[in-house]
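Worked example

This section walks through a single chain of length 500. The input is the sequence exactly as stored; nothing has been trimmed or padded.
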Amino acid sequence: MNWLHTPLFCPPFDPFLPLVFLSSHSSLLLFFSLVQFGRTEVIDNTLNPDFVQKYILDYFFEEKQNLRFDLYDVDSKSPDLSKHDFLGQIYCTLGEIVGSSGSRLEKPLGGIPGKKCGTIILTAEELDNCRDCATMQFCANKLDKKDFFGKSDPFMVFYRSNEDGTFTICHKTEVVKNTLNPVWQPFSIPVRALCNGDYDRSIKVEVYDWDRDGSHDFIGEFTTSYRELARGQSQFTVYEVTLLSFSCSVLPPTLPGNPSQSTSLHYMNPYQMNAYAMALKAVGEIIQDYDSDKMFPALGFGAKLPPDGRVSHEFPLNGNVDNPYCNGMEGILEAYHQSLKTVQLYGPTNFAPVVNHVARYAEAVQDGSQYFVLLIITDGVISDMAQTKEAIVNAAKLPMSIIIVGVGQAEFDAMVELDGDEIRISSRGKLAERDIVQFVPFRDYMDRTGNHVLSMARLAKDVLAEIPEQFISYMKSRAIKPNQDPQPCKSKDPALHTQI
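Given that input, the structure is written out below as tokens.
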């Protein structure tokens, strides 16, 4: 599946520690798939570090990408972690961060029994395609004197604005000692880090007097933008800060992940169907026999659509909102392959919209003349579990069933919970009227000899096994008897369906 190059930011750590555990130097470690991915800079003498270091991760929304963050109090220059005091850790997934409100996840640190280790705040943002790099230099004149026995030791801190009105630190200059007229060294910063390609995005700059104990004195601040900086030499007269130089260059290009790359679950191998296509073909070719005209609506979820990049969780694969129907399984497969070339796959992964979409059609036809079967092929990652459970509970009283086929190697705990074979699914204290979900992991059906025909046959047999019973349970619950002379179907639905 496609991935997004997503920067992972590590803003303030706000520990709630007694003074006896006062941290003098804080450093955060990020572990990716239990392999150390990187370390932040060390911030001296603070309980509330705001880390500048960012990490660019390949985001695969179809996979469960486990992360672990460890926080240490750095006592020496030794790279050996056992030489430093452990302050706490958290486990999460990259999907949790991206799927959180505003892509901002706040979690309590743990790892030390009986201790409150504080809170960590993680934010993520999709990187713009902009590859520009800005180089600039600043100076200042007549800054306030903050040191009792000297002048000031000024440094600058740059923040970029977020959509929720908050700011994220993106750069710190060096400290220039004992002066009220500093000239800072030129520095380079990717435009993506400074404003993520939005030239009018607010950039806040604060000037501080550095203190050894970490209690830096605030001197002043100003707000600007990349567009204003790019105009050339500028003076921010309120605090006598001057932009001495500004230039822009282009960073070397990177190749983003896409379905044409073999690492994607949606990889379009010219010689073999991917797991999504095989699952669709295996189930669809059997269930299509119960549809009179073999015209099937096919929906996708989790993508940015052209031309404006709008995110949708229920878009037609053929791109036609007014007529999303595809001619047979071959038509659906063609639409699927074409959509991979036109949309940008995007998280979070929400099931509820497409379940509710089908339920609206099923709700309108409850006389037994139609029964709806929704086939969902997924990687197992789900961002709206509570909403999906509620949608399924509501749909359980309607003439519909849901088949979920999990592809890839992710954990499918959430899908098993939705299946409800062991424990009937519930939402807000309300049990589903009947079990309408059948889940199977595709990997369990892969034939060791590579016989995909056999794999697909076994998958179809098991995944469709519960449909007749679910169908009959609905009819019995509504006291609907078989119609000896069925009428032609007059209305189509947005999912695979059968006429009774």
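What to look for: The two ends are 37 Å apart (CA to CA).
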